[in-house]
Amino acid sequence: MMDIILASQSPRRKELMAMLPYPFLIHPSEFDESTIKEKDPEKAVLKIAEGKAADVAEKFPESVVIGSDTIVFQQQILGKPKTAEEAAEMLRSLSGQTHTVYTGVVLMKDGIATSFAEKTSVTFWPLSEKEISDYAATEDPYDKAGAYGIQSGGALFVKEITGDYYAVVGLPLARLKRELDALLS
Ligand SMILES: Cc1cn([C@H]2C[C@H](O)[C@@H](COP(=O)(O)OP(=O)(O)OP(=O)(O)O)O2)c(=O)[nH]c1=O
């Protein structure tokens, strides 16, 4: 069988990927996300996922390469916060509201890209200023789009979710399995 390569440095994507019935290797991409200026969230995650996958596929043309990207959209694209102020500002904008998490996945095989994006709606309870500043003072928000981890501290903010939980964490697992099944059959 062809090697499957996950083009990601994310420990969470590695953990999720391990739930699929396929052995895989990891080669993080060196793609620079800031080169993508796209404002439409769905197009943005797909372009970035493709950039990540294509970068690694160039080095491993005989493999199936998986690139992925997750962003949070609440009136505007929320990426990863750099400071406690930025994290708190993002969390304030999500408080008591429903936002959309977009995860794009691109599978590259023999130079051909198979792409899909999953949209998940997440509703937060209203957050107190203390909840926000306490959470912004932890390490949790800083490597995560939208400044929260639904699988960690952010679990305490979520009132409702519609869509694939695993897409919010970083990989739409059930859909990815189906796409891989089709590509490898
Ligand atoms: C909203 C949300 C995001 N995230 C994470 C998923 C992604 O890892 C991260 C968004 O950044 P990404 O740029 O999608 O990914 P990454 O830089 O972590 O890894 P790589 O590009 O090498 O694959 O935010 C959570 O872990 N939990 C959440 O609830």
UniProtKB/TrEMBL annotation:
Keywords: Cytoplasm, Hydrolase, Nucleotide metabolism. One of its GO terms (molecular function) is dTTP diphosphatase activity. The keyword Cytoplasm applies. It comes from the Bacteria. Its cofactor is a divalent metal cation. It holds the Pfam family Maf. The keyword Ribosomal protein does not apply. The active site is at D69. InterPro entries: ITPase-like_fam, Maf-like. This is dTTP/UTP pyrophosphatase. The record marks R12, T70, Q151 as: Important for substrate specificity.
